[in-house]
Amino acid sequence: MKNTKTIAFTALTFYLILHCSWLRGCKDHQTDQASQITGSPDQAGISPENMVETNSTGTADATGSNSQIRIDQDLYLSQIQDGAYVITHSFPWAAHSLLVQMKDQSLVLVDTPYTPEATRQVLEWSKDHFGVHPIIAINTGYHHDNLGGNRTLIDQGIPVYGSDLTIKLLKQKGDDIRRQTLDALQECQYQRFHDRHKSIPYDPPTHSFPLQEGLDLSFQDETVQVYFPGPTHAPDNVVVYFPTRKILFGGCMIIGWDGMGNTTDADLEAWPKSIQNLMQFDADIIVPGHGPRLDANLRQHTLNMLAQHTK
Ligand SMILES: [Zn+2]
């Protein structure tokens, strides 16, 4: 009896030692890996060298140290024009959204950070920086890097625009996206992200428009144009064009680095034709869903990447 107890006790001790060292290993590793994935803005998001200097609307020493504003460990803003900021959330993959102030002072948020918490932090920053103004939001697709923060927007009464197909696909395939995301985050160094991605609410847009028709939003004499060029990275991705600023938010259909990312939902045949349909926009700045570049050549760069990928 005594022996059995000793054996059980020894086994338990071994288990605890092993388990604790595994946990400790996971924790140490997690910290290393997290800083590696999220990186510095230079590695993971928009780097100052790659930012476009603009003078059309009056600002922006985009290469200056003031152009990047870190809000949190994984979240920062980059000023691209006076009153226009690219938001980069690395959770853990760096993804961009866009916050623009219109001439009537209202604000347009294109896509959201991955989480409601990060979205709340952006809105708090916006309130401190711009003051309190009406905000409208647009989701450019149903993937979680387009709308993971919708819960915060809806809680704050902010109208969220998205296409009828975005709403449909989110309902049909939102769970698939979550499963793919969790699969990609299984190693213990991603634990922090895995834990949160498990339960991020995927709330649909509150205001829908027919995908094929797109949407024009008016702000006194300014418009914002939401346009569907055809299937691309996902069947429902749209772009958002700010004509007075010559900014085109291309989102995930525009490739902002040398690589393709996840193409499981893509229409590789239609994608290049759809990108050709974006050539009509007179753009000085194109904001991709991911990657450090922001220049008008990103349409051609996307075509090049697609040609390489499908060769
Ligand atoms: Zn994306």
Structure description:
The chain is α/β, with parallel strands linked by helices. The chain has one domain (39-310): Ribonuclease Z/Hydroxyacylglutathione hydrolase-like (Metallo-beta-lactamase, Chain A, 4-Layer Sandwich), CATH 3.60.15.10. The chain has helices at residues 2-38, 41-44, 116-130, 144-147, 150-155, 164-184, 191-197, 270-276, 298-310; strands at 68-72, 75-81, 84-90, 94-101, 107-110, 135-138, 160-163, 207-209, 215-219, 222-227, 239-242, 247-255, 285-290. The protein has an 8-stranded mixed sheet. A 5-stranded mixed sheet has the order 9-10-11-12-13, covered by helices on one side. Strand 1 (68-72) and strand 2 form a beta hairpin. The protein starts with a helix and ends with a helix.
Q: Keyphrases for this structure?
A:
single chain; 311 residues; alpha/beta; Metallo-beta-lactamase, Chain A; 8-stranded mixed β-sheet; 5-stranded mixed β-sheet; 9 helices; 13 strands; 37% helix; globular; binds zinc ion
How would the blueprint of this fold be written?
Layout: H1 2-38, H2 41-44, E1 68-72, E2 75-81, E3 84-90, E4 94-101, E5 107-110, H3 116-130, E6 135-138, H4 144-147, H5 150-155, E7 160-163, H6 164-184, H7 191-197, E8 207-209, E9 215-219, E10 222-227, E11 239-242, E12 247-255, H8 270-276, E13 285-290, H9 298-310
Parallel strand pairs: 5-6, 6-7, 7-8, 12-13
Antiparallel strand pairs: 1-2, 2-3, 3-4, 4-5, 9-10, 10-11, 11-12
Bound molecules: zinc ion.
